[in-house]
Amino acid sequence: MKKETIERSADLVFFLLLSFADLKTYKFFHWFAFPVPTELTYRYDEERPITSNLNENLRKSVGEFLYQNQMPNEPFFIYHATEGIKLLADYIQHRHTDKNFREENMEIIYFCYYDPTGDMNSVPVAWHLRQMLTYLVLTCPVLAEREIQCIRVNGSTLAELQFSLMTIHLPKQQNVNDLKVWAGWESDGNGKYLPRVTSLNESMSPGSLAVNAIDLNLKLMKWRLIPTLNLAAIKQTKCLLLGAGTLGCNVARSLMAWGVTNITIVDCGKVSLSNPIRQTLYRFEDALNGGKPKATTASERLREINPAAKIVGVNLKIPMPGHPIGHGDAVAETRDILSKLVSLIKDHDVIYLLTDSRESRWLPTLLGAFFNKYVINAALGFDSYLVMRHGKTGDNINTENYGSSCPVGFRKIDSCDLGCYFCNDIVAPGNSMKDRTLDQQCTVTRPAVSNMASALAVELMVSLIQHRNPPAFYRIPKSDPLCREQEPDGLLGIIPHSIRGNIATLQSMITATERYTNCVACSGSVLERYASSKDDFIINVINGTESLETVAGLNKMMSSIIDGCEDKDTLDFESDLSDDS
Fold this sequence. Notes:
By secondary structure, this protein is an alpha+beta fold. It has helices at 52-68, 127-139, 201-204, 206-214, 216-225, 231-235, 246-257, 294-305, 329-347, 362-370, 438-441, 447-467, 524-533, 535-543, 548-552, 554-580, and strands at 16-22, 27-37, 43-44, 76-80, 84-86, 109-114, 147-154, 162-169, 182-185, 196-199, 238-242, 262-267, 310-315, 350-353, 374-380, 384-389, 410-413, 472-475, 498-502, 507-511. The strands form 4 sheets. An 8-stranded mixed beta sheet has the order 13-12-11-14-15-16-19-20, sandwiched between helices. It has a 6-stranded mixed beta sheet with strand order 3-8-7-6-4-5, covered by helices on one side. Strands 1, 2, 9 and 10 form a 4-stranded antiparallel beta sheet that branches. The longest helix has 27 residues, at 554-580.
């Protein structure tokens, strides 16, 4: 050795590195080796705790040495029980090696090494410690075939400082030229002598970069404006969109903008030449050659926007009252459709009703109520729209931060008591396309109405997720004629039951209605009938062999009204006769 002594103990840590970067898959292979001679073997006793007296002085000395000032480049050092921290250069000279440690009391000298793994359960005699021990064997013949005391030091800060003590038996002295075989390659996580692999695919691939960029607006929203916004709950929500027309396309885009990545789109139609100008997920080429299926085409377009999203398109026609299916194979086909639709509704958290006819919304409304799902309805008129949420049965109301009290001038309706799309009707849905010309069968609406309704439908869902199952309020003018009180706000504003808007007057109306006991879709009698007969009940309703009005009790109610009117007319007639006499 040419130098008189070692300048810093870090020079003892010698390593080799083999690396390879697979830039196509963003995987990086690396294999470290810390060379040590295989001819030198060490025996050591099990690690044991430091005695209390030694621990107190050692902790103070090591803390001052490692952490009080800038951390020294000394992974190996010596602790002298009476003199404190010493460097290897204080004891080891390279010219007169036989004098190293000859006059020292080895019972009060401890060889310390800093373990960068931070794991007290790792192998005590690691590769870098063996490199220091090799240095001792070559430079300190006095220590040959003797025991030395070693202290392992762990902890990245003074508060985390930990020690363990062990005794190591050094082998006999060797000449460096006699050491021919060297080892030291690290094993991988499975204990095999193979390179370690670091995959940066999740952070460097174009898809991962796109995901981070897509979520940037939402993260800024949470960071700067709404710290309590639960983005994880939104992202995990599974949404089922029934209808891939103008509403369906706009709702899907708004859901993705909110970070929803699990969306299923159901439709049975094909893209026509009139669709791309209004339905934002389709192009001109999608309408050629008879048109591509809407559901699968829309899902492909959404995956182009966000490749990481799980978007599924399902080509399915929803069975509807007033559209008989007959018998034979059609019944078997309908049962298969019903099975698929039930499975889809059970597998999703929020159901969007975005179809273009009243009767097509009946079955999803019934199933949403039966399986206790969030159901959000959006419907369009020429210059008006309706956006509403259906009530959820069987859930406890969340009043932790919304709706715990009802302000003066309002009435509160708990979520489980809110009505559905059909609760305001006293007739069952039927074939709304019957006896209509082709132009009358098309939904005619001002172009921007769909964008407004779709945005409100998605924003309503996001508010529902933040507050789980909030109540709704409606104003009672007599209690607050001057409208001084305001409806309670949630995290993102009010959470209404329904929003009725009109762009001709640039006005919207917030309303709330209670569940109707004779509703043809969500009443207890209809749900019980479905629970008992399932598909048979649905098929009977579709074929018209079972009346929804009868099941829901509407016929009985109407009969009682008519009978009451007839009784009143009879009494009036008899009263008139008695007056004439």
